[in-house]
Design brief:
61 residues, mainly alpha, rod-shaped, 70% helix
Length: 61
C-alpha cells in the first residue's frame, strides 16, 4: 500500500515553519537565561541567610 499526500509544501509553508522553529529556539534560550539568573539569585540569598545567622551584616547588594 502506498501513501498518497494530499498537501503540497509551498514556499510559504516552508518559510512559516522556519520562522516557528526560530521562535521556539529564541523562547528556549530566554527560558534558559531566566533559569540561570534565578539560580544565581537563590544562591546569593542562601549565602546572605547563612551569613545573617552568623551575625554578619553583609547585604545582598
Amino acid at each position: 500500500m502506498t501513501a498518497t499526500h494530499r498537501h503540497t509544501i509551498t514556499s510559504t509553508i516552508f518559510d512559516l515553519s522556519e520562522r516557528i522553529g526560530e521562535a521556539i529556539g529564541r523562547a528556549e534560550d530566554a527560558a534558559l537565561r531566566a533559569d540561570l539568573r534565578l539560580r544565581r539569585v537563590n544562591r546569593i540569598r542562601t549565602i546572605h541567610g547563612s551569613l545573617a545567622i552568623e551575625g554578619n551584616t553583609l547585604t545582598e547588594g
